[in-house]
């Protein structure tokens, strides 16, 4: 039995010495920097204001004066509907107005004559009163004719499809010779973006991330057309209108962005990060270091973007070639780093994030952790 015990002790000692010589630690330096917590969302780049230009009149498109990307001014004619039917109606009502105005003028002359004769008792006063009634009727007819002429003139003017704003034509839905019918629904002929130098990103933000999203929050995003460029903007509106697709609820968070160089084009897909909290120039450690415990196990609940603030955890630091446990209080955390609020750490300390066994190239064996 004594011999067996001695063999066991020697075996354990040999294993411990072998493991000591083979354990290697992966470290990273502690440094000061920024810790940013952000909400990730996907959105679409759109103009801030897009005006739909339609047609009030029905008819055949006679001419097209605006096309895609045309710079237009307010009041500029972009298309014209065949005006001949509306011109004919206008001429008809105008002629009717002239006729009825002449009848009214004649009735007024007769009324003046009858009133003079009635004062001289040359005719009965009833005749003058009847003539006055005729004049009032003719005045009503002329007024009705004037309204018909104004309506016909308005319809004639509507044959000119006019841009209501200064902007850029981003869509054209009509061609020359096409017939448009405005009887039941106003057809869309053009879409005009008022200012492409000011754009917005409409993001689909998950309901779980809405708690930290506020107006004015700084935002960054990228588009596929410029993968190496980071665009900056700010949240201008958090719309309280949920959108549910296959039981997934999202909200539209609008991000305003300056597009002075016209790099962004309507319809681009933007990968957006909305910054909900940020700490600059703080002592930070990699999240992997907060998950490390000796023996290759993982400490659950440490690190990650949703790590609660002011949480007491333990990290292992390599000092004088020996791993030393240090208790710290953490603050803000993002996907990569966690802020250290309190603890015996300083910039330049080598924090342990993992360990491996075996003799890796370029790595030397280190002794086991010291508690």
Brief overview:
By secondary structure, this protein is an alpha+beta fold. The chain has 4 helices and 19 strands. Among the domains are: 39-48 and 195-279, Elongation Factor Tu (Ef-tu), domain 3, CATH 2.40.30.170; 51-74 and 165-193, Beta Barrel (OB fold (Dihydrolipoamide Acetyltransferase, E2P)), CATH 2.40.50; 84-157, Helix Hairpins (Orthogonal Bundle).
Q: Which strands sit side by side, in order, in the main sheet?
A: 2-11-14-13-12-15
Radius of gyration, in angstroms, nearest whole number: 41 Å
Series of H and E elements = HEEEEEEHHEEEEEEEEEHEEEE
Percent range for helical residues?
25-40%
Q: Stretches where pLDDT falls below 50 for ≥5 residues?
A: 12-20, 297-308, 359-371
Please tell me what the overall shape is.
rod-shaped
CATH architecture of the domain at 39-48 and 195-279: Beta Barrel
Mean pLDDT: 86
Number of helices: 4
CATH topology type of the domain at 39-48 and 195-279: Elongation Factor Tu (Ef-tu), domain 3
**Biggest β-sheet: count, sense, barrel?**
6 strands, antiparallel, barrel
Superfamily at the CATH H level of the domain at 39-48 and 195-279? Efflux pump adaptor protein, beta barrel domain
Q: What share of the residues does DSSP label as strand, in percent?
A: 35-45%
- How far apart the termini lie comes to 34 Å
Structural category: alpha+beta
What's the total count of β strands?
19
Highest-level CATH class of the domain at 39-48 and 195-279: Mainly Beta
């Amino acid at each position: 039995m004594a011999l067996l015990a001695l063999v066991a002790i020697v075996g354990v000692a040999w294993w411990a010495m072998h493991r000591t010589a083979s354990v290697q630690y992966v470290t990273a330096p502690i440094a000061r920097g920024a810790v940013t917590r952000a909400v990730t969302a996907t959105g679409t780049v759109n103009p801030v204001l897009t005006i739909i230009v339609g047609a009030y009149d029905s008819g055949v498109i006679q001419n097209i004066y605006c096309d895609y990307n045309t710079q237009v001014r307010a009041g500029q004619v972009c298309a014209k509907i065949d005006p001949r039917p509306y011109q004919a109606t206008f001429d008809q009502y105008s002629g009717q107005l002239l006729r009825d105005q002449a009848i009214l003028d004649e009735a007024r002359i007769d009324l003046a004559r009858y009133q003079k004769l009635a004062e001289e008792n040359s005719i009965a006063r009833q005749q003058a009163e009847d003539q006055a009634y005729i004049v009032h009727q003719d005045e009503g007819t002329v007024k009705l004719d004037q309204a018909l002429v104004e309506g016909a003139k308005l319809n004639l003017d509507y044959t000119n499809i006019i841009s209501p704003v200064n902007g850029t034509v981003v869509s054209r839905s009509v061609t020359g010779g096409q017939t448009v019918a405005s009887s039941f629904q106003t057809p869309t002929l053009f879409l005009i973006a008022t200012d492409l130098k000011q754009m917005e990103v409409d993001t689909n933000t998950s309901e779980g991330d809405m708690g930290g999203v506020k107006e004015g929050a700084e935002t960054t995003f990228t588009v596929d057309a410029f993968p190496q460029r980071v665009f900056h903007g700010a949240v201008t509106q958090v719309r309280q209108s949920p959108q549910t697709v296959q039981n997934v609820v999202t909200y539209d968070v609008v991000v305003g962005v300056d597009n002075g160089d016209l790099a962004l084009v309507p319809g681009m897909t933007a990968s957006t990060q909305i910054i909900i909290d940020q700490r600059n120039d703080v002592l930070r450690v990699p999240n992997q270091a907060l998950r490390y415990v000796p023996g290759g196990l993982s400490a659950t609940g440490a690190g990650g973007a949703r790590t609660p603030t002011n949480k007491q955890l333990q990290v292992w630091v390599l000092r004088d070639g020996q791993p030393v446990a240090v208790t710290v209080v953490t603050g803000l955390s993002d996907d990569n780093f966690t802020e250290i609020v309190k603890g015996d750490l300083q910039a330049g300390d080598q924090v342990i994030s993992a360990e491996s066994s075996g003799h890796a190239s370029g790595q030397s064996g280190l002794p086991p952790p010291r508690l």
